[in-house]
Design brief:
By secondary structure, the protein is α+β, with helices and mostly antiparallel strands. It is built from 15 helices and 14 strands.
């Protein structure tokens, strides 16, 4: 039996919702745009004695129900209580967090069960180094998505998170600033105690935390030690998890219904009136039907901004070329930087300009890739770069032939090695020509000319 079958991984994903007001007060939610701390606040979201919450934010409720339906959850219609979850921490001024009972249960995404979706208010932000607290975020509406422990490997958890975040992006109702993910990871091995890992704010972080924690627990078991139920944090700088505290149970939080908030009841017509957005699955089907390769379509639909860019770019250049460049070159540059398209300087106008230069034969493949690497960060227009820096493709066959002759005469050993069957020698010679031509020569033309002259 594989060790993977003994591993159980579940996730709790906290998603901040894009609303104009907080969950139980009228304070604005744009904490990510405000530099001055503790300005988007009032007696309710700072937990002052005697303050009473306003009725729950209907805009946030609709988003929670939308996500529950997108995840194929069974909607809970009656007697949904908002409870007080008690714990003492500086970012929680009232000493409790308002958390609803589930709006939806028993869902599924890509074969992973969704236990429940509920709402809660976001705490403030506590700086461990300075001891200062900013309550601008306190009270912003969150949904928490709790998965079943159906995942067996870090790779499965990573793929699930990518799919979930892609789906959430299609709603256009989540706060996506500096990465939306705030997740707690639960893991147990061979029926042992469940360990929760907090302080995870990226898909990559969740993957690395799981890789480390599986090794840690298996090493403990190999030594005959017992894994205890606890909460750990992920130290991303050192790629390890550290113990924070013995894990609380539900009883430790002393949940009680909030006496200031009546239980929530939904009418079926209200739930069904909430329009659902297009999903990655339906978007992918349309792309494949339009002729896009299935692997490219699957890659692009994970990020709505990426697939939107493709669809607009495909109107301005050859669709197959746009799909290939986005999936193989654009995403490579974004992944290398660890950023999303919306965090880069690249936009449709810039990409279309680059692809048109390449498609029309004005620049080589190599030049196009070098320009792309630059404009992702700079936002410069490719045609301006090409004109100013003289990067257009060399069309003068005489100039290319002269460069090839010079390189062959300077590298006679490589020429003889190629004649003797050394393929690497050809790569060396091509590289030297491309270097001399500053990448402005067509790669295939260089190979053809070298082989003709040597043979």
């Amino acid at each position: 039996m594989s060790d993977d079958l003994d591993v159980m991984i579940g996730l709790e994903i906290h998603v901040p919702l894009k609303t104009s007001q907080k969950l139980f007060c009228k304070c604005p939610t744009n904490y990510y745009e405000v530099e001055e701390p503790n300005t988007n606040t009032c007696p309710v979201c700072t937990g002052l004695p005697g303050s009473k919450p306003a009725p729950i934010n209907e805009e946030a409720v609709k988003t929670a129900l939308m996500v529950a339906r997108l995840l194929d959850c069974k909607i809970v219609y009656e007697n949904i209580f908002v409870k007080r979850k008690h714990y003492n921490y500086p970012d929680l001024p009232s000493g409790y967090q308002r958390t609803s009972e589930p709006f939806g249960v028993g869902g599924n995404l890509d074969g992973v069960g969704i236990w429940e979706i509920h709402m809660e208010e976001d705490p403030g932000r506590y700086d461990l180094k300075t001891g200062r607290v900013d309550y601008n975020r306190s009270g912003v509406p969150l949904i928490e998505i709790v998965s079943a422990p159906d995942m067996k490997t870090p790779e499965q958890a990573r793929e699930f998170l990518k799919s979930l975040l892609g789906l959430l992006g299609y709603t256009e109702r989540i706060i996506d600033v500096g990465g939306v993910l705030r997740a707690d990871v639960n893991i147990s091995i061979r029926g042992g105690a469940k360990v929760e890992i907090k302080n995870i704010n990226s898909v990559t972080g969740a993957f690395k935390a799981l890789k480390y924690e599986i090794i840690r627990q298996k090493n403990m078991m190999a030594r005959g030690a017992q894994v205890t139920q606890e909460t750990r944090m992920f130290d991303e700088a050192n790629m390890i998890t550290r113990s924070m505290r013995v894990k609380e149970t539900a009883d430790d939080y002393r949940y009680i219904p909030d006496p200031d908030i009546p239980p929530i009841t939904f009418e079926k017509n209200f739930v069904e009136s909430i329009m659902l957005p297009e999903t990655p699955q339906t978007r992918m089907k349309k792309l494949v039907e339009s002729g896009v390769r299935q692997d490219y379509a699957k890659t692009m639909v994970r990020d709505k901004s990426i697939v939107n860019m493709y669809e607009e770019a495909s109107k301005k250049t050859e669709p197959a070329l746009a799909a290939m460049w986005i999936c193989e070159e654009v995403l490579k540059q974004l992944n290398y930087r660890g950023i999303r398209l919306t965090e880069s300087k690249l936009n449709l106008e810039i990409l279309a300009d680059l692809l048109n230069l390449f498609e029309s034969g004005k620049i080589t493949d190599n030049t196009a890739k070098k320009i792309l690497e630059r404009i992702v960060d700079s936002g410069e227009k490719p045609s301006v770069i090409v004109e100013k820096e003289g990067l257009g493709k060399v069309s003068d066959e005489g100039a290319l032939e002269s460069a090839v002759d010079e390189i062959l005469s300077e590298n006679k050993k490589a020429v003889e090695d190629f004649r003797g069957g050394e393929k690497s020698a050809l790569n060396f010679l091509v590289g030297q020509v491309m270097k001399q031509m500053k990448g402005r020569a067509e790669h295939k033309s260089v190979i053809k000319l070298i082989t003709e002259k040597i043979n």
